[in-house]
Amino acid sequence: MAEFVGAIDQGTTSTRFVVFDAAGRIRGQAQKEHRQIFPRPGWVEHDPDEIWENTVEVVETGLADAGIAVSDLAAVGITNQRETTVLWDRVTGEPLANAIVWQDTRTDAICAELAADGGQDRFRRQTGLPLATYFSGPKVRWLLDEMALRQAAERGRVAFGTIDSWLTWKLTGRHLTDPTNASRTLLYDLAADAWDSGLADAIGVPEAVLPEIVDSVGVGETCRGPLEGVPLAAMLGDQQAALFGQACFQPGEAKNTYGTGNFLLLNTGDAPVASTAGLITTVACRIDGEVTYALEGAVAVTGSLVQWLRDNLGIIRTASEVEELASQVPDTGDVYFVPAFSGLFAPHWRSDARGVIVGMTRYTDRRHIARAALEATAFQTMEVLDAMARDSGTTLTELRVDGGMTRNEMLMQFQADVLGIDVVRPAVTETTALGAAYAAGLAVGLWKDRDEVRRLWAEDRRWTPRIGDTEREHLAARWAQAVERSLGWA
Ligand code: ADP
Known about the structure:
By secondary structure, the protein is of the alpha/beta class. 35% of the residues lie in helices and 22% in strands. The chain is built from 16 helices and 22 strands. The chain has helices spanning 48-66, 108-116, 124-127, 136-146, 150-154, 163-172, 179-182, 197-203, 238-245, 303-313, 321-326, 366-392, 409-419, 431-443, 450-456, 469-486, and strands at residues 4-10, 14-20, 26-33, 45-46, 73-80, 85-89, 99-100, 158-162, 176-177, 188-189, 194-195, 212-213, 232-237, 254-258, 262-269, 280-287, 290-299, 336-338, 356-358, 398-402, 422-426, 459-463. Strands 16-17-15-14-20-21-22 form a seven-stranded mixed sheet. Helix 13 (409-419) links the parallel strand 20 (398-402) and strand 21.
């Protein structure tokens, strides 16, 4: 019997294929980077054909690495970089342009024009999103207009998809997406769980280009090509896959991914929660037609501040050295570092903020600066979680963490201290691929239900708060004072 599950993890810089066994452990994997195409300042593109070719290659090399055949796979799941937009010809199956990547800001003018009538939050009630170049809808409009594809689109010749759709099309010939990806387009109504013709009209996207929305978790089509005969059983955007991979299935459960920046998602259950703090409302997953929603918040500068210490200050040679340096002092000596290099995101949303280091004395040295830089990641995470708790009315009992910075034990301990709850790192830190695998395995019955998956999910380390409420409140108040100093500089 087929006892393995494959996860295609199509990310911004590379494509991976990871094979998991029935115990949820990694048995083999392969990875390949693709080109980042920068035709003009602010523009970022990927070649959809290259992404497909890399997918085929990593599937083959990943299976070989695991030492198994395609027929040993019980199911495959897809997780993907979100919002990145592909258009292709439904008749020839060929891409009509390079994919416009989520980071691309060419739709600035379209977003400004749309915001002129009703503001940046014009579509927030329905979509959970602010009007921003990040999301797919304006990218589709730009491509249709600039490539003179609107008429063909209205006649039904043009297909739009995010990367999940593009890969599904290549693997099965069907034009599908799931609600976690649909909810990033500005074209999808969260409460109705459907495309919305009013939104499509307003943004200028003919409904004929849109994929059919299917469950995130569920047995769908059977693959052809490199995964011949394997059921495609899951589609999840990358951050939602990480939430699933952290087994955060219940309302009130949250994960934080610490990478270049941080991504926090909180499961809020079966109703979308509107944010008053500038968080995004999004879909966590859809199973058997039932939608689970999430609140999402991002912190722009976290791991990249460690890179900045390395590259701009030169006080460390590698990212991992920061821990050793910062550990040489017991505290920052009351120094705070607010890395508002490009303004502050949620919950402040102040583009006029700039970075500050406050509280220095003659006694301060690079060890204190390094420590304050690490603490900044923990404080910024605290602010987003506080906003999530206020918006959702839930209190977290623990935070599940993943990503490169979670190797830093000192940071994880400080995170637990300032949050006042346990911080937990799982045994498998490839949570994005793991989430797609959990989802696909569940869909085909390799695992009976989410409780069984929850039991598979294994803890590696847990950090418990070591400070009391008075000290925590003091730290939070000092941080708030430092943030005040950073505002209004630009
Ligand atoms: P991404 O997926 O965003 O590329 P990763 O999850 O690979 O990021 O994490 C890399 C980030 O983590 C880098 O910004 C790096 O500076 C930071 N980092 C890596 N190791 C450590 C460490 N031991 N302590 C603190 N930061 C670290």
